[in-house]
Design goal:
The chain has 9 helices and 3 strands. It has about 230 residues and is mostly helical. It has a 3-stranded antiparallel sheet. Strand 2 and strand 3 form a beta hairpin. The longest helix has about 40 residues. It is globular and about 55 Å long. It starts with 6 loop residues before the first helix and ends with a helix. About 5% of the residues have low confidence.
């Protein structure tokens, strides 16, 4: 499917993902700073998408913008990842509750078939395609545009974290098909509370996996740095 992102929004995403990657991998640490000029040179985009990315990052609590200083990075590690997932859980659990009974049966059936195939193939979901589809459909079906927008905003951070850790083979890429199927079965029953509970359980497991992967990455980076110094 062809992306509908404008060049400016694509540039903003490049900057955001680059900054989040640097924070997660330890290239930047809390207290370090980055100016707009440095960011434009580093990511090869104009200052407009850089400004938009920095404002978005500030809204997510990842940086602090200071006058005449630029962006100051805040701490971002396992604890911060858990906090982001806690917010994501609040948003998506409610979206799941609202979506129960609103998603057409053929769509739910197709998703069940997809995740059943994933489970039978060993749990691999290339590029998180079906995972993202499920969460997007639930958010859209909540009927609340503000809720949908906020879920999308946090989704960019979540997807970046998942891309980083899966690229480095930390085991997080194997999504839990059983957890997704539990959500879908509850939605098929039209049971809002059961569906919300299944989503809450799924995101709790995802939060733990992401935080542990981040912890492992930090430990490996620290060991590599120590080796280089010695």
């Amino acid at each position: 499917m062809t992306s509908s992102r404008s060049p400016r929004s694509a540039g903003k995403l490049v900057v955001m993902r680059g900054l989040i990657t640097g924070l997660l991998c330890g290239d930047w640490a809390g207290g370090m700073r980055l100016t707009e000029v440095e960011a434009t040179e580093k990511f090869g985009v104009s200052r407009t998408p850089v400004r938009e990315a920095l404002l978005e990052m500030q809204g997510l609590g990842l940086i602090e913008l200071r006058r005449n200083c630029g962006a100051v990075f805040l701490s971002f590690g396992p604890n911060e990842i858990r906090e982001i997932y806690e917010v994501r859980s609040l948003l998506e659990v409610e979206a799941t509750r609202l979506a129960a009974g609103r998603i057409p049966s053929p769509i739910l059936k197709s998703l069940v078939e997809s995740f059943t195939a994933i489970r039978e193939s060993g749990g691999i979901d290339p590029d998180w395609e079906h995972d993202r589809s499920l969460h997007r459909i639930i958010a859209e079906s909540s009927g609340n545009r503000r809720l949908f927008s906020e879920i999308n905003r946090y989704g960019e951070v979540i997807q970046t974290v998942r891309d980083i850790v899966s690229d480095r083979d930390y085991g997080i890429h194997e999504t839990s098909a059983d957890e997704h199927l539990a959500i879908l079965r509850a939605l098929q029953k039209g049971d809002p509370e059961l569906a919300a509970s299944a989503m809450r359980n799924h995101l709790a497991q995802a939060s733990h996996s992401a935080a542990e992967a981040a912890r492992f990455m930090r430990s490996r980076r620290a060991a590599e740095t120590s080796t280089e110094l010695n």
